Amino acid sequence: MDTNRRDFLKKATLLSSAAITLPTINNAAFAAAPSFNMWGYAAPKIDTVRIAVIGLGMRGPGAVDRLSYIEGTEIVALCDLHADRVVKAQKILTNKGLKEAKSYSGDEGWVQLLNEEEVDLVYICTPWEFHAPMSIAAMKAGAHAACEVPIGLSVKECWEVVKVSEQTKKHCMMLENCCYDFFEMLTLNMARQGMFGELVHAEGAYIHDLLDLNFSKKGYDKMWRLRENIKMNGNLYPTHGIGPIAQCMNINSGDRMTHLVAMQTADFQMGDRARELAAEDSFFQEFVGKKYRGNMDTTLIKTEKGKTLMVQHDVTSPRPYSRLHLLSGTKGFAQKYPKEGIAFGHSFVKEDELKSLKEKYTPELVKFIGEQAKQVGGHGGMDFIMDWRLIDCLRNGLPIEQPVYEGASWSVIVPLSCESVAKNSKTVNIPDFTKGAWKTNQPHDLSLKGGGNTGIRPKATQNQNNQLNVE
């Protein structure tokens, strides 16, 4: 182990689930300094990707299950704060006839893992506050990082993950699965083919009633997500909405987001729910009288080329799920919710024409892996498409489709929206994490050129004719 890695991990042992502090970084100086561009970077090929999964609560077990189907991978380590979760996750592997991974648990289990195991990819599914520190530690330990959203909760964290990725030449991919959903990929390819003309406006959202889940004792460990709704007052979860539309508008590869304004309602439900629950159960008393984030946050973003994006966040109102995903161009229009539709004028195209558009413009990746992804699962298959594509890129030495600049620029909406809301919807500038490289960065390739050779292990079912395959 090299000296820098050993020193960093030694310091990391002092970090626990309480507070994690990142090194001081001069954002202005770093932004002005020349650096290695991770956009389009093809890391050396990895024949068998050795994976460590950290965080086995809400999202981690699903990740273990999906990754276990991908050939050319070996899950070598599993880690969680709670040892019993590691035991359960091991069964996902052994029930499929795969080798048991090394087990780690406790506050410093992840540090011990990085210190002891030689891994190629660290897959992080922990609470938000650990995302940036763990991603940074993984890259400094010599591994690529794949991290659940968001990649950071502050401007400093976002700059730091960019800096470390560039310095180590290790990928740090934020796992924005919605970029790999079927309609989103269809419209991305259509946008690339000019079907909508020049995109001038787009809308995305995360509108999902999580009120009961956020207050559930059986939900997020130590009620961490509820506590985030107390600590931060802004758009806490922008990436599902912004990710797909930002890619359609070539953000970071032809345009960039320059500034935003955010406006938010007051809280009309979370405080009331805390009081209602506390009246019956003293466990909830600590959550009474807290100032919760509002129901709906609306963030408006302007780009360098004069285009606009709107991103909304509401996790408490009783309304149907929606990510909006709306694209408006000079020649066409698309929207996903409440019903998928595409228009090239005043009316949506008919069902038969929509079917034809899907057949023509569905990207090669989805045609190749889509049906298998639906069988494996994970939000309808988009999670598996994302995982498979990442592994296929690493195994073939291909650039990944969500380099660190994507995670940083999408995640930084969290702290910047909070700042704007706190200052009565004041305009806030958005950092250019590419340091000007957006002017020459090319949109990522939607084809399977150079890859597409990563197989899928059979799915264990009673009906062996149901096995997954890639042909």
Automatic annotation (TrEMBL):
Annotated region (Disordered), positions in chain: 441-471
Residue ranges annotated for the Gfo/Idh/MocA-like oxidoreductase N-terminal domain, each copy included: 49-174
Names of the cofactor(s): NAD(+)
InterPro entries assigned: Gfo/Idh/MocA-like_OxRdtase_N (IPR000683), Gfo/Idh/MocA_oxidrdct_glycsds (IPR050463), Glyco_hydro_109_C (IPR049303), NAD(P)-bd_dom_sf (IPR036291), TAT_signal (IPR006311)
Domain of life of the source: Bacteria
Family to which this protein belongs: Belongs to the Gfo/Idh/MocA family. Glycosyl hydrolase 109 subfamily.
Protein name: Gfo/Idh/MocA family oxidoreductase
Native organism: Sphingobacterium chuzhouense
